[in-house]
Write a structure and sequence with these properties.
Blueprint lengths: L1 H12 L17 H20 L27
């Protein structure tokens, strides 16, 4: 057990050992990349505004007859 602790301490101090991390490294973004992302975001927003709102699609609307008077909700006897 003592050997394992000492070995771990020695490998932590060795600069020749390759180091790796399971966490994703945060990369610095250049101003060009930031400007490009903003332009893409603006184009996306403009593109979404051009899409018309979805309307109710009822292919049987012309075939059905509309009721002349609404049916009573509650019948009292």
């Amino acid at each position: 057990m003592i050997v394992a602790v000492l070995q771990e301490a020695l490998t932590a101090q060795n600069p020749l050992m390759p180091s790796f991390s399971l966490q994703e490294e945060k990369k610095r973004r250049t101003p060009e990349e930031i400007a490009r992302d903003k332009a893409i975001g603006r184009c996306y927003k403009i593109g979404n505004q051009k899409i018309p709102e979805k309307q109710a699609n009822d292919p049987w609307a012309d075939v059905r007859s509309t009721p002349s008077a609404p049916a009573p909700k509650n019948k009292q006897q």
